[in-house]
Amino acid sequence: MFPETVLFDLDGTLLDTAPDFILVLNALRQEYDLPPLPDEQIRNTVSNGARALVTLGFGVTEGDEGFEAYREKLLSAYLCQLGQASRLFPGMNDLLSVLEEKSIPWGIVTNKPSRFTIPLLETLSLSKRCKVLVCADQVTKPKPHPESLLKACDIVNAHPQNSIYVGDHRRDIEAGHSAKMTTIAALFGYISEDDKPESWQATYQANSAADIHKQIFG
Q1: DSSP letters of 46-73?
Q2: Is 172 a catalytic residue?
């Protein structure tokens, strides 16, 4: 049987948004006469959000003096850069097309705020294709709590136990498990070197969009 819906995390799963963050963070570091960071180091931090990027870029943590100023500058710069270098991961457009052809609604459940997510999807011409979008600011408890996944399933009238969630972070898989969904760990995403995806206990692991296709359709 086909799933009733397939839901994706955004950054590092559906979209490769790291190029935008690489440009923005290194440009901001340049303003402070700091050398650029390696692309891969930034890429592996993207899924942990803006706060983690500020810590990576400037060595300060939340609560430290100057942290909020760095974060606001980073987010403002990112909003201006939004979608300029971001792309669907290779093979992902083909996967989405197959889902659409088979009338399987697909959607996005992300901890990224809607003020960034909505214009990003519009820039990449995905907003009309996406049947459901749930952002962190649209629920009371973001991932790893299952609320956002359950809300997405409810919107498209899908049973969670007959649905799939794909993500590149431990919290994605934890949220999927809590929602009783089949989970797929996107190993091509933004996974730090010290993380071990095999310990997430996802239902399946995928090295590419083609792998996700096989795991959905056999």
Answers
A1: GGGHHHHHHHHHHS--TTSTTHHHHHHH
A2: no
Residue 9 among the catalytic residues: yes
- Beta carbons within 8 Å of 128's beta carbon, 6+ residues apart: none
The one catalytic residue among 11, 16, 20, 172: 11
Instruction: Express each pLDDT in 149-182 by its tens digit.
Output: 999 999 999 999 999 999 999 999 999 999 999 9
Answer yes or no: are the C-beta atoms of 20 and 84 closer than 8 Å.
yes
Whole-angstrom Cα distance, residue 182 to residue 158?
A: 13
Q: Which two tokens stand for residue 91?
A: 């093979």
Give the count of beta carbons closer than 10 Å to the beta carbon of residue 182: 20
pTM given for the model: 0.94
Same structural domain for residues 124 and 46?
A: no
Give the pLDDT confidence of 48-91 residue by residue, as tens digits: 889 999 999 999 999 999 999 999 999 999 999 999 999 999 99
Q: Which of 9, 16, 20, 168 is catalytic?
A: 9
Question: 11 and 23: one domain?
Answer: no
Instruction: Tell me: do 12 and 25 sit in the same domain.
Output: no
